[in-house]
Structures are given as structure tokens and as C-alpha cells.
Amino acid sequence: MAADNAAFGFQYVMLKINDTLSIPEEDIEWQAIRSQGAGGQNVNKVASAVHLRFDVTASSLPAHIKTRILATRDKRLNKEGVIVIKAQQHRRQDQNYSAALERLAELIQSATHVAKTRRATKPSRGSVQRRLDSKTKRSKIKANRRKVDD
Asked: What percent helix, strand, coil does the chain show, rounded to 5?
């Protein structure tokens, strides 16, 4: 893996997710492929798009983050637990590689975020009383508009 990345001229030691979490280079596998769409003269010669593969189950991530990633319903995660990211928006391979790494970091970062548990609350007694008073007041205003019976 590391030899593949070095052969293509991309060197990084760790992909930093946040202050406490990083992914070593050995956990990420990538492959250069041809981009889709119009490309002019170089369309059949240059492999500028990038397929990045990250095996979640075999990675060095903590177990609780692995389970959270595997529990997500993301289309980039296949049945074997491998995240596949295709980056082809740039014309240069190194820019696509950086974009794919950013997207991987984003995906893992979203799995590390734990949402606050919701606590059920009740309206205060004063707010309930104010609401009922305003309803009563409005009711009296509308009652005063009616026709008076003799």
C-alpha cells in the first residue's frame, strides 16, 4: 500500500481526522482510473480520477467508531465494510487524491460526532396560564362582535 502511494508521488504519514484520531497511510488503498465525461485529446490517455478504498473492519480505528461507521446507511460503504470514494472533479490526479482524502475524513468525522440525547420537557405553569388567558381574552373579543339578543 505505502509503496503504491509513494510510486504515484503522494506522501503523507497520517490522515488527521480530529485532535485525537488519525488514520495511518497503510489503511488507505487507492487506484488511479480514467475520468468520465469530456476530456479532449487526453481522455483516453490520462488517469486523473482516483478510487480510494478504506477497509473499516481491518482499520486501526477504535471499535466504537468502526461500529458507528458500519451502522451508517451511506452508499459509499459496501457490504464487506469497505468505503469506496471516487474523486474525479479536478483535472489533476493529486487534487482528486486530496479531495478523496477530505471526503473520507469528513465521513469518519461524522461518525465520531455523538448527538445529544433529547430530554422531554414540559411548558412552565406560567406559560400555560398566559396561553389560556390570551385564549380567553380573544374569545371575549369575538363574543362582543356577535349580535345582541333581546
From this structure: 40, 15, 40
Q: How far is CA 105 from CA 40, 79, 111, in A?
A: 32, 20, 10
* pLDDT, tens digit (0-9, with 9 covering 90-100), for 83-130: 888 888 887 788 888 888 888 888 888 888 888 899 999 999 999 999
d(CA 4, CA 50): 13
Rounded to 5 degrees, φ, ψ at 31 are: -145, 135
| pTM for this entry | 0.61
Integer Cα distance of 41 and 121 in angstroms:
64
Domains of the chain and any CATH numbers: 2-112 (3.30.160.20)
Contact indicator for 71, 38 with CB cutoff of 8 Å: no
Give the C-alpha separation, 104 to 112, whole Å. Answer: 13
Q: Distance of CA 72 to CAs 9, 111, 115, Å?
A: 33, 8, 14
